[in-house]
Amino acid sequence: MRVEMRSMLMHLHKRLNTTMIYVTHDQVEAMTLGDRIVVMKDGLALQAAEPLVVYRYPADTFVARFIGTPPMNLFPGKLILANSGFVFDGENFQLRLPGEMLKNIKNHANKNVFFGIRPEALLLKDGSQSQPETSIRGNVDVTEKLGNEVIVHIVSGKHHFQMRMDSGLFGKLTTQTEVCPKMDQAHIFDGETGLNLTIPESAGATPHASEIIPLDPNAEEQSA
Question: Residue 3 in 3-state DSSP?
């Protein structure tokens, strides 16, 4: 009934051709129904953008983990300056960050951050990635077989994360595995504020809740 209702609302919106506001706790409904999503927490708007922008470029760690099933993997660690570039140090692994990230994270050397990557942006290492600092080694904990895809739960030291893979590749999975993140889909979040440091300007990011003044319901006049 819920799926049918989503379809009916989409047809109604198209027929009326008018603005509609839909409030939901279901991220699937938000992603499928909305032309624009506002993610809220404690009465404040954390991010307002098109659904795919919110998914691909979350404004902070809350949005990153709220939108997406499974949610974005967040690895705590530090940024290390090395060879005119930056390396993310997760203690038991290191990942060299792409050059296009440098201008946004240059002031965060030796600071605590989170490395964020979606489960589908993790790939089994196939031997072509021979350079160091490009992969994460870990042990497969459990697997969830969902028909056309498999969710793999992996443990690497203190880190527990998930990888989404095609079921056709399941036979290549071993107990001890090595995965490579697609670095063009990776994000760096500030370790204290949780803000995404690597959102490109072209993504049309909106101000974070910390920059938004909440409305006072008792005030007679409001200005925006």
Answer: helix
Residue 33 vs residues 9, 39, 212: alpha-carbon distances, Å: 8, 14, 26
Q: What is the pLDDT of residue 100?
A: 84
Pick from 168, 146, 165: which is nearest to 154 by CA? 165
At a CB cut-off of 8 Å and minimum separation 6, what does 38 contact?
45, 47, 48
Q: How many distinct helices (H) and strands (E) make up the chain?
A: 5, 12
For all residues of the chain together, what is the average pLDDT?
Answer: 87
Structure-token match 């527990």, residue found: 160
The answer to whether the beta carbons of residues 187 and 58 sit under 8 Å apart is: yes
CA dist 224 and 213 (Å) reads: 9
Q: Average pLDDT for residues 64-82, to the nearest whole number?
A: 94
Residues 6 or more apart whose CB falls under 8 angstroms from that of 66 comprise 27, 39
Average pLDDT for 122-131: 73
pTM of the model: 0.85
- b/e sequence 171-188, b meaning 16+ C-beta within 10 Å: eeeeeebbbbbebeebbb
State how far the Cα of 135 lies from the Cα of 93, in Å rounded to an integer: 8
Give per-residue pLDDT as tens, 27-37: 889 999 999 99
